[in-house]
Specification:
Blueprint lengths: L2 H8 L5 E7 L8 E7 L17 H14 L2 E7 L1 H7 L1 H14 L7 E5 L10 E4 L2 H4 L1 H24 L5 H4 L5 H10 L14
Parallel strand pairs: 1-4, 4-5
Antiparallel strand pairs: 1-2, 2-3
Helix pairs in contact: 2-6, 3-4
Length: 195
């Protein structure tokens, strides 16, 4: 899981940040990205793609990463902006914000997916990076848990949609709530709701 980090360090880069996002697909809520700089040669066998972990495992590892990481940056893009600029641009904007919110400097970025970020820092996009890089997997966990926490707060504001359970994703229950109650302020109006 740290072969990409080792390869980059052999090229002379010192501070590698992994970047990933959570929340591209939901009908409601922000997209959240995280950038994580781990200590040199950091190993933790529990860290892997957030989608392969249970919510309880994610919460536990989230705390571990928060304690062990050199720096963590988060980037949020709200639904109104997603509607305005589209989900791909919003994703890249959230990732850029996450990098800019790091408290420690980074000189190389490992990014989950196909796209790079509009920053002058050297970077590499890695398809399935959250399964191949410990830094990207850490970012995937930080982004997912941070977003879940946001949606839990929104659930208290908008209980009719049960964001506590669906986290804004288009479950049948959520779609039925939209048909019954209409959109609330955190829904993405540009996303199609299938009946």
């Amino acid at each position: 899981m740290n072969s990409f980090e080792s390869e980059v360090r052999q090229l002379g880069f010192k501070s590698v940040a992994g970047i990933d996002e959570a929340g591209r697909g939901p009908l409601a809520g922000p997209i959240v990205a995280a950038a994580v700089i781990l200590p040199y040669d950091y190993i933790n066998v529990d860290i892997r793609d957030s989608k392969k972990l249970t919510p309880l495992q994610r919460e536990k590892i989230f705390k571990t990463i928060r304690n062990d990481a050199i720096s963590i940056g988060l980037g949020f893009v709200e639904p109104s902006v997603i509607d305005e600029i589209n989900i791909l641009r919003a994703t890249l904007l959230a990732m850029k914000r996450a990098v800019l919110n790091l408290s420690a400097p980074t000189d190389y970025l490992l990014i989950d997916g196909r796209d790079t970020i509009n920053l002058s820092i050297p970077q590499k996009a890695i398809i399935r990076g959250d399964s191949l890089s410990i830094s990207v997997a850490s970012a995937s966990i930080m982004a997912k848990v941070s977003r879940d926490h946001v949606m839990e707060k929104y659930h208290r504001q908008f209980p009719d949609y049960n964001f506590l359970r669906n986290k804004g994703y288009g479950t049948r229950e959520h779609r039925e709530a939209i048909i019954k109650y209409g959109y609330c302020k955190i829904h993405r109006k540009s996303f199609k709701v299938k009946a």
